[in-house]
Amino acid sequence: MLLEQIKKLAFNSNDELTALVKNKAIKNWSELIEFIRNLPYGRNLNREDFSLVITENKGTCSSKHAFLKKIADRNNFDNVKLILGIYKMNHRNTPKIGNILLDNGLEYIPEAHCYLKLNNKRIDITNKNSDIENLLKDIIEEIEIEPEQVNIFKTEYHRKHLKKWKQQENIKLSFNELWTIREKCIENLTL
Length: 191
Hints:
By secondary structure, the chain is of the alpha+beta class. It folds into two domains: about 1-75, no CATH class; about 80-190, no CATH class. Helix content is about 40%, strand content about 15%. The protein has a four-stranded antiparallel beta sheet.
């Protein structure tokens, strides 16, 4: 019941981000979630400017969820958390990456992924087909972060985790090779 109440919340702030939402004739939190979910996946020109999700009509898991968390904060919507999860990305739970990992001798690669928790229920609005249930069994760890942490902090956290994994699993590829493979996977998500 609480989850449904959160979804129907109306906007009460007059800040610039909420104004962008209202200018799109989006009336409540539920409509905003659906609007953002249906935007194409793609990197924004500036990861620190959350308004670009609306003005460029696209976003990544980081920018879309950070934008939603920022809107929730500015409108005093309780029980909305921004989560950074590390999961075992592979061709089964992220099919659009194709065989890039397998072609490079990897079963999976740790990937940093952002999503929300609404009343402790995970939701993923990265795209219209995103379903957090597909990742649950492959989540290695998760932490709560602030929207401003999706830029430098998220990247550093991800790189640190990848280096630790490389060492623990005795991966022969260099860190730079692993990061390049990971970037190719992310590129495939935009196709």
